[in-house]
Amino acid sequence: MTNKNIGAALLFFSFTLMASAQTIASRIVDKKTNEPIPYATIQLSENQGIITNEEGRFSVTLEDTRPQTDSIYISSMGYEKIGIAVNQSTDSIIYLAPKAIELNSVYVSNKNLTIDEIIENVKNRLDQNYNFGLSQKRLFFRKSEFSNIKKLNVDFKKSTIEELNKKLIDSVVSIIPRKSQYYTETLCNLYGDFEKRKLHIIKAAELYDKNNEVSMEAMSKRMEDIFMKNVKPDSYLKIKSGIFGTKVQVDSILENNEEANAAKDEIKDNKEDKSHFLKHRKSELKSLMSSFFFNEDVMSNFLNKSNRYTFELVDYTNIEDYSVYIISFTPKRKEDFEGTLYVNTEDFAVVRVDYQNVRNLKNFKLLGLQYRDNLYKAKMLFNKGGNQKYDLKYLEMYRGRYFGVDRPLKVIEKNKHVKGRRKQNELALEIDAGFDSMNKYEIVVFDTKELTQADYDNSKENKSIKPEYLSKYDPQFWQGYNIIEPNAAIKQFTAAPETE
């Protein structure tokens, strides 16, 4: 049973009563400013909860199989914590009031610590504060990929193959999408620690425009047919860009191409094209969790190389029932990051950190080639469990790069087995191209449980899992499951109508 809407301005919680679950959806807003409150916590029990997205929205499913939940509790840094009865009809907007700062007794006793002493306490208590042991985490992982071609100019110069002409090259350039989006969403159980992991995927989806792939595959097939028709198998190709060149045997290309096509056909026939989905998700989760600021040899080195940064105690606030130091940091000399630490005054745990790069992490430009690693922005929130150790509650990370090329390109077919000139065919182009790529990662952890070694050994992966393809956002796909709500861009995404 679902409560009916009463007018456009007054909406009830969405209580979707199904055979196994009840779903509540709403938006959290600042009572004074009417601004949405991102990353607020909606607590279901001591170790179970979700988090609002960047627009302050959330939905939560209360499973009938759990112990009866009478209320949910909503909290956010700097706001009053409130409880809401799950059977209470209320507006679809929930207001949180700013909380007057209250200093706990521990803060008062620690208030004379210098900033250097606070940071040293943070570093000395890492092993005590964070959970490095085996655990099972129920989490939702969303990856959003964006690419944007800023320029793509291909100047046709010469071709000795009639079909490989300016018109065809222009056609290839024209079908390359200037902007593209690709989203993957995965609900899973992650078993292990920072060294070893197993992943059991419960459900997954991918959202993108399939037409881009179909167009590129068709053009690739056409180019392949032209290539096989006009180039001898015992030739080799000399690929030159400026003063650089390399040789590639054509027969090996054809052989590999046949193997690739056979493998592709087999994959399609057996519908195993997503058999590596679990492997890729596990690899990405490993990379993200290895990037946590308290690990060794991480790029975000503001803690383990704190002497290279300047820290300043700028304020304090409350998170639920404890006070936190608000500490800003900026790089000295040539370090890369600036940001803010939120440190529990009682145990010196970093309960939240926001940071981003202040300069290009890598910058390469030589002989018409450009590469910039230009965006590294992250937010991490941690939650203390029943074992008094902190585990990840939410991660949001952006990684962006720029690639550029402004160079001539020649592909020359040569063959030493024919009489006369070895040179058989040639294609010459001038390429001036540049594109940005940006990945956004989101991880929300709903539940963390400690594991024994035997529990970990007995945990199972499902390597054959395949995500379901969606051509547009479907609000029903995740109904009955806890996830982090999609933002407006994902909700509005729709692929173009499929072409035949």
Structure description:
It comes from Aquimarina gracilis. Keywords: Signal. The protein starts with 15 loop residues before the first strand and ends in an 8-residue tail after the last helix. The chain is built from nine helices and 22 strands. The longest helix has 21 residues. The strands form three sheets. Strands 9, 10, 11, 12, 13, 14, 15, 16, 17, 18, 19, 20, 21 and 22 form a 14-stranded mixed sheet that branches. Strands 1, 2, 5 and 8 form a four-stranded mixed sheet that branches. A four-stranded antiparallel sheet has the order 4-3-6-7, with no helix packed on it. The N terminus is likely disordered. The protein has two domains: 100 residues, Carboxypeptidase-like, regulatory domain (Immunoglobulin-like); 279 residues, no CATH class.
> What is the average per-residue confidence, as pLDDT, rounded to a whole number?
82
Task: Count up the domains.
Answer: 2
Oligomeric state of shown chains: single chain
Q: Uncertain spans, ≥5 residues at pLDDT below 50?
A: 1-20, 263-273
Q: What is the end-to-end distance?
A: 41 Å
Which class of secondary structure composition applies to the elements?
Answer: alpha+beta
- Any idea what the radius of gyration is? 28 Å
Q: Considering DSSP H and I runs of 4 or more, what fraction of the residues is helical?
A: 10-25%
Overall morphology: elongated
In DSSP terms (H or I, runs of 4 or more residues), the helix count works out at 9
